[in-house]
Amino acid sequence: MSRHRTTAAALLVLLAAWGLSGTASAAVPRLVFPVVADTFYFDDFGAPRGSGRHQGNDLVAAKRSPVVAVEAGRVVKWTSSRTAGCMLYLHGRSGTEYMYVHLNNDRTLRNDNAGGCKNGIAYAPGLVSNQQVQAGQLIAYVGDSGDANGIVSHLHFELHPNGGAAASPYRRLRAAYRHLYPRPAAAVETLRMRVHGTVVAAFLDLDPQRIRIRVTQLRLSNGWIVKPKRDVTLSVPVDAALRRSVPGTLSEPTTIDRFTPGSRVIVWANEFPQDLLSARAAPGLHTIRDILLLSD
User: Which fold has domain 9-174?
Assistant: First the structure.
């Protein structure tokens, strides 16, 4: 853990504009962004810390936000560092090593420090050391353990090309895939989802037609609820049920032209395979089974 350089005092300067950066090996693949939530970060790699220079980027997000594997590989838990708190290593298939530091250790959204470095608290349910994980798979949760205790929940994320010296992950993070949801373990073969959000645009001249939605909340069929902070564009097949809520009754049929920008909607998507492409949610990939236009 000698490479870890986050200190409590350093987090007070997260709004400053550090301009330092590092270089990464060409072997590092295009990553999956490690947090599936609204996240604030900048390139604070190399910034001064009490014990040296900062060896990663701090990704500020709400406590218990999902943390995912940035590429496929092997995870190893690490719980013996007082400064890092709960953390893990991801040994990527590319040969790149990643460090996930300051994972959650609270049982509640308060800073109770009562959860410890356990599955369902710091780590994904069922996760074990030396387990192989998929790119985008849920592995942990954002927190404030270690010397970040009580300051601000964030993920300290490090990137070590070929397992060597740390390099700034900033450019890789900026170019990373923003997944719609964290992937469950490989044993889950298919999923369904319910999307809450507002209409951004409807594309009536396409075949099939499409609707782009700004997601406020997404619920997977395995019970996970996430707020991915991104849009999703869904296809509207001819057999999709289009409804609008009506006071005094449940709903009534409507037409796609009624789904105007800013309209609040709930979407039930058709079942889809639990794979990397589905998690990336390219425009039109997911299809609507039922969509409800909510009344104001």
Answer: Glucose Permease (Domain IIA) (2.70.70)
What digits encode the pLDDT tens for the residues 50-63? 666 667 899 999 99
CA angle 230, 231, 237 (to 5 degrees): 150
Question: Would you tell me which CATH number, out of the four given (2.40.50.320, 3.20.20.140, 3.50.50.60, 3.30.950.30), belongs to the domain 190-293?
Answer: 2.40.50.320
Encoded tokens for 244: 């609008």
**Residues 6 or more apart whose Cβ sits within 8 Å of residue 38:** 61, 62, 227, 229
277 vs 284: CA distance, rounded Å: 12
Taking the CA of residue 262 as centre, how many other CA atoms within 13 Å lie in the half-sphere pointing to its CB?
1
How far apart (Å, rounded) are the C-alpha atoms in residues 121 and 144? 12
Cα gap 213→236, rounded to integer Å: 12
Amino acid at 165: A
CB 195 within 8 A of CB 267: yes
pLDDT in tens, 193-230: 999 999 999 999 999 999 999 999 999 999 999 999 99
